[in-house]
Amino acid sequence: MSCEKGVQPKKVEKKEAPESESINVNLNNKTMGSSLVMQSLPAFKMDAFNAKTGHFTEVSSEDYKGKWLVVCFYPADFTFVCPTEIAAMNAKYDEFKALNTEILAVSVDTKFSHKRFVETEPLLKGLKLMMGSDSTHEVSRSFGILMEDEGQALRGRFLFNPDGVCVAQEVQAPSVGRNVNEFLRQVKAWQLATETGVVCPAGWEPGKRTLPVNTDAEQMTGRVGDYITLEEIIGK
């Protein structure tokens, strides 16, 4: 399993699209390590397990039109770091929902595996997330994070705005889990920036100072330190 291995470099081979498919392949010809930031949500449809209802269903990119969306890939069910990440996302589920943000967890496991995983792993008791089954590997590949040799996805987490544009992406090798609090902070920052036109400095959290480049761009150029201090940026 990928979670048991150290981080090893991957050889990425560039694949040429067939001549008949050479048009409009910007989202369908992605290789591992490419970025989706500022690109559109790849179209997808796959089986899923709705942990909140306990029923199987189907999810597609069409379901999330006009919504903020987090797509969170993880390598596999019945591994070690993965349930800790899923449980952490679930613990913050209500906070994401309060921000009108949907969460879709995805791995290459079948919907049946997802169901069994949720039923047997103690950390996943009370899980509310939708769990997509990328059993064909097509979704992971379209997001550019499929480890072809292992047949699993990297730890890829993507945030899409209501226009379906990716504004944030975090990808890690399998051995280390991600921080849900940091990602939740990013969602809040992106929503504020989108709604108001301000920009958020490093480490911004609700209640902290933003940078009003939408009104004072010329005055701020080269003088950001007149608006905010390092202590404000890194302080708690």
Strand order of the largest sheet: 2-1-5-4-3-8-9
* Cα gyration radius (Å): 19 Å
Q: Quote the beta fraction.
A: 15-25%
Secondary-structure element string? EEEHHEHEHEEEEHHH
Number of β-strand runs: 9
Uncertain runs are 4-12, 14-31
CATH top level class name of the largest domain: Alpha Beta
CATH fold title of the largest domain: Glutaredoxin
Distance between the termini: 38 Å
Alpha-beta classification: alpha+beta
Gross geometry: elongated
- Mean pLDDT level: 87
Instruction: Using the 3D structure, state the CATH architecture of the largest domain.
Output: 3-Layer(aba) Sandwich
Q: Counting H and I runs of at least 4 residues, what is the number of helices?
A: 7
Helix content: 25-40%
Q: Report the biggest beta sheet as strand number plus sense, adding barrel if it closes.
A: 7 strands, mixed
What keyword list fits this structure?
two-stranded antiparallel ribbon; 236 residues; 2 domains; Glutaredoxin; 9 strands; elongated; 7 helices; alpha+beta; seven-stranded mixed sheet
Architecture blueprint of SSEs:
Elements: E1 45-50, E2 55-60, E3 68-73, H1 81-91, H2 93-98, E4 101-107, H3 111-120, E5 130-133, H4 138-142, E6 146-147, E7 152-153, E8 155-160, E9 166-172, H5 180-196, H6 213-220, H7 230-234
Parallel strand pairs: 3-4, 4-5
Antiparallel strand pairs: 1-2, 1-5, 3-8, 6-7, 8-9
